[in-house]
Design brief:
By secondary structure, this protein is an alpha+beta fold. Helices cover 28% and strands 36% of the residues. A hairpin with a 7-residue loop joins strand 3 and strand 4. The longest helix is centred in the middle third of the chain and has 24 residues. The two termini are 33 Å apart.
Length: 259
């Protein structure tokens, strides 16, 4: 389905920028000329001038600066504000595109912008990346113990310093991104009951041999996959397709949030 949206920025009831004007600004930035920029953007020179004058008059800072022709030939360029405008428009368009894609993909959690961005565009060195919502915060001296409900409904505990909790502005019901590396996860056929350990229920999807070690993928609730890297000798009791537990320490999780 070719679902798309045209991003328009307005100030009150007056048009500021739309895709046509953004294209004009991009061409001016590339050519250094309003006339050449207008030609490449497929609009008349007068229409280009009218658009630039309107954009320049709507904001405290101009978008385009120009010099009249003369010995040096004249020219035009984007101001620093104009260059920032192009970058912000590009970023906003990307976020808008991700939101539209998420609309058609029911596997994407839609509780917050963080959920959507993490699903489509956030890459980290941590093999495991989960999103969830904070359900409880228990301050315990230097550290805060934080309960998080994952997208599939299971709950885990994470531990961060109280300073980090304040800096991230962690509060009840806030969306967070949880990152932890595969070697921090132990896959087991039985649940662990060690204090400070999380143990998520899932199903073993695969075991990939890596020399004397193995990478395991575990499906939890049909929403997320957790990866584990552990000695091959410790995987002998695990069977692909059978129930499996993914266990990791609460202190191994890195938390990210959007303020």
């Amino acid at each position: 389905m070719d679902l798309h949206a045209l991003l328009t920025l307005s100030l009150g009831d007056k048009l500021f920028v739309n895709p046509r004007r953004i294209n004009l600004l991009e061409q001016i930035a590339s050519t250094g000329s309003i006339s050449q920029g207008a030609k490449l953007a497929g609009i008349s020179y007068k229409a280009a001038w009218d658009a630039i004058n309107e954009m320049n008059s709507l904001m405290p800072e101009p978008v385009v600066s120009s010099e009249k022709g003369g010995k040096g030939g004249g020219g035009a360029k984007l101001t620093e504000f104009g260059e920032r405008l192009l970058k912000v428009y590009s970023i906003t368009s990307q976020v808008q595109g991700m939101a539209l894609t998420a609309l058609l993909d029911d596997s994407v959690d839609m509780h917050s912008l963080l959920d959507v961005m993490a699903h489509f565009s956030l890459n980290t060195s941590a093999r495991n990346q989960l999103t969830g919502r904070i359900k409880g915060i228990d301050s315990n001296g230097l550290n805060d113990n934080i309960g998080v409900v994952l997208a599939g409904g299971q709950s885990i505990q994470i531990s961060v310093t109280h300073t980090s909790s304040e800096r991230l502005q962690l509060t009840i019901d806030k969306s967070v991104l949880l990152l932890f590396k595969a070697p921090a996860v132990v896959a087991s056929s039985t649940a662990c009951n060690v204090g400070g350990q999380n143990c998520l229920t899932g199903r073993l999807l695969s075991v990939t041999k890596l020399g004397d070690r193995a990478e395991l993928s575990i499906d939890i609730d049909g929403k997320d996959i957790i990866y584990s890297v552990m000695p091959l000798t410790q995987t002998q009791s695990l069977v692909v397709g059978e129930p499996c537990f993914a266990c990791f320490d609460a202190t191994q999780v890195i938390v990210a949030s959007m303020n």
